[in-house]
Structure prediction request, 652 residues.
Amino acid sequence: MAQQTAEWTGFNITEQELRRMRWQTRRENLGRSWYKFSRNPLSVVGGATVLIIILAAIFAPYITPYPDHATRPFTDFANASQPPSLEHWFGTDEIGRDIFSRTVFGFRFSLTMGVVVLSMVVPVGVILGLIAGYFQGSRIDTIIMRITDIFLAVPPLILALAIASVLEPNLFNSMVAVSLMWWPWYTRLVYGQATALRNEFFVSSAEVTGASTAHILFREILPNTLSPIFTKISLDMGWVIIIGASLSFVGLGVQPPKPGLGTMVASGAKYLPDQWWISLFPALAIVVLVLGFNLLGDGLRDLFAAEEI
Amino acid sequence: MSNDILTVENLKKHFVIGYTGLIHREPITVKAVDGVSFSIREGETFGLVGESGSGKSTVAYITVGMYRPTSGTIYLRGEDLFAQGDERPLRFKKEIQIVYQDPGSSLNPRRTIKDILDLPLRIHQPHKNRTLEILRLLNEVELPPDYMHKYPRQLSGGEKQIIAIARALASDPSLIVLDEPTSALDVSVQGKVINLLIRLQQELNLSYLFITHDLSLMRNVATRVAIMYLGKICEVADAAEFFQNPQHPYTQMLLSSIPVLSEEEEKLKPSKIHSIGEIPSPVNVPPGCSFHQRCPYVMDVCKVVDPVMVETGPGHTVRCHLFEQPPAPAAVPETSSTVEAAT
Prediction:
């Protein structure tokens, strides 16, 4: 395009000016979104918690005092079962490992579990929901939604337990197990949205202009379902982390000596209540992480709800 | 009829809304459109008027291809729009565009104005520079260029409708279906939108199928007017003739119920006919002439036989037993209370 926008458009503006306009509108939109999000202090706290935990998990080897205690087999019976002190903030466990270091590394497993499960589950669930919802009443709708119903009828933790106990118990298999159970929730969510949106006139308008089905599904309908999807993702991070920790707790998730948060709670459980710190701090870590995601989810919901107006 | 752009022939659309009985299942149908024929000339504004539920929007939706008709067909410059089955060819989609009633629902709230205008350009004008083309469209409808990156919610109702008009223009169509384009807008904005539509029509030689229930608006914009009642057209006439010499009792009823301000205006209207009853449900259309239950001139034949279209003057057709065999029988009101002797 020429530097000067062609005169026949009726406007005489340069390309830079157009770009500046785009950035200005984007900045305004972003500023308004942040204002709405930040009006609820709890959601900011949730967002900050999640951000700090993610950063801590990424930079765990550099910020923890004893990274060796989490990354490789390690025993130090001289320092076993020490209560919290300046040297060991969260104390040490029954074989002398620093619980603070192991908890920070434990976030890695929990977050990996959440991110991997949701990045497998969300695209599958969303695409199936879009297709079934847009072709509501057709055979493909019936097939997708009945399969969804079947999966929804099985309690996720129980099936995850069953799958994880049949396969070799490790983090990967527990992620596969949870993923298998989780996608129908997204299909349901998006299905409900898509069946309502397919009757909107902007969808008809795209249809009668000749837009492809892919365009209608992903450019017209999908953007309007993003707000509940993102809210659900944030809330589900909490759920998946809890299920992952539960699987680890019963020995079907992260295997010792790797520092899964659930694994750590389980290994400390037999020393309760005398050596309470072994279980308590990893358990608190789970609570803080899940709470952070839930508060963030509430904040996102408020943000998107306000955007509708 | 070489200068007709759109010819609608005996168009019918029956929606199945349920079934009666358990064993002998008979479909319950709504005859939304039941044998509509008309034609639109190049460059004219054809007004289609009717109450809610008369089927006028259904005609619009069939014209743009949202529905397939149950029977009958539509020709665009002599070519059958439905000849190729379910998927209407792209070149027809390019020629016929639509502006919906509610701009709040017809613009995707999650897409910018640029995205919205880009879609028809990408499909129908792929070889053009689309950014420039979007700017040209915005200029055409008198909106500033920085609207490109705005979302519909940042625009007023009138501006949204203007964007919907720009989107309809994007594919460079020859016919635009306007489905009550101003009824969701404030009165102050309606005038602006109407003026824009009239200017665009003159500049781009567009034809409009203008659907509305607002008769006073029709008087200002339409070149010809057709009036619909329960899925059928009652009367078609040139706009001037339609308002000066309405012949169908239903047309007279509607025209006489337009509110006016002064005595002089009152004199221009046909004699006052009280509007009785409401439009019946299209599920249960009365036998004979569908209007006979509300008609002040109802005759015995009306309750049994459905009238056919007769030409009462040049370009003026009426579907009423009163005009079927000349000389028309004297209009004898059945009940004197329904007609006020104003003359």
Observations:
- The CA atoms of residues 70 and 258 of chain A lie 7 Å apart.
- The radius of gyration of chain A is 24 Å.
- Chain A touches chain B at residues 1, 5-6, 8-11, 13, 18, 21-22, 24-26, 29, 200-202, 204-211, 215, 219-220, 223-224, 226, 307-308 (CB under 8 Å).
